[in-house]
């Protein structure tokens, strides 16, 4: 049996596992809640609550990933994770402490569900291969092989250089000012020549159906988006998965969340999330 106090002690970790595996705040919260419902019904003593809860959440997330595979394949335009948005002046909030960059979540999305589970449990939360094998009902040697393959895949695709937080924030703020001021030349100065921008509208709102590549194309695309008529647009500086970003509200409602990756003082990647279903969990700014 696992009581409420014990469960709450592990909730942050459980949400972190589910979110990294699913890339969805809503789905991660549903999985954690389902895990609680299952565990609260266990009448016998649980010797290792953390391991038991982790096993439950991991397998629930794996099941949800399998059922979501067809939906992801039919997704309209680029798929991006649901963002975790916090105010930049907040310290160790739960969401911020459990965040991971959108770029890394996209890399994890390219793994198979099993690879993702093993990578998250081993590389992020430090479980041993033996423990993971028990959670997944698989042989330790096979799990070790999956983990090695997943680690190599992630290392080959993870961001090449992680700029200091203050540099990311400064470049992001300067780029935002250039966008709002319609300064196309300054926008292009702050964009790397090979910059790529992804926009996720999910077929529900206007967004580019393909990634935009190159400083000129990205700058003109963003300038056209900002120039569209809006009802009381407000731009808020926020942290998106622990990195500097922005939240655009229209008529008081979340409309767009954007986050950039910075290298050598220039923006190399921009991810723009506009799908309303991926923003509905956001609190009022």
From TrEMBL:
InterPro entries recorded = ECF_Sigma-70_Domain, NTF2-like_dom_sf, RNA_pol_sigma-70_dom, RNA_pol_sigma-70_ECF, RNA_pol_sigma70_r2, RNA_pol_sigma70_r4_t2, RNA_pol_sigma_r2, RNA_pol_sigma_r3/r4-like
* Family membership: Belongs to the sigma-70 factor family. ECF subfamily.
Q: Does the keyword Cell membrane apply?
A: no
RNA polymerase sigma-70 region domain residues are: 7-69
Keywords (A to Z) from UniProt: Sigma factor, Transcription, Transcription regulation
Q: Where is the RNA polymerase sigma factor 70 region 4 type domain?
A: 103-153
Taxonomic lineage: Bacteria, Bacillati, Actinomycetota, Actinomycetes, Kitasatosporales
Assembly, in brief, is: Interacts transiently with the RNA polymerase catalytic core formed by RpoA, RpoB, RpoC and RpoZ (2 alpha, 1 beta, 1 beta' and 1 omega subunit) to form the RNA polymerase holoenzyme that can initiate transcription.
State the protein's name: RNA polymerase sigma-70 factor
Where in the numbering of this chain does the SnoaL-like domain appear? 173-269
Q: Which organism is it from?
A: Streptomyces javensis
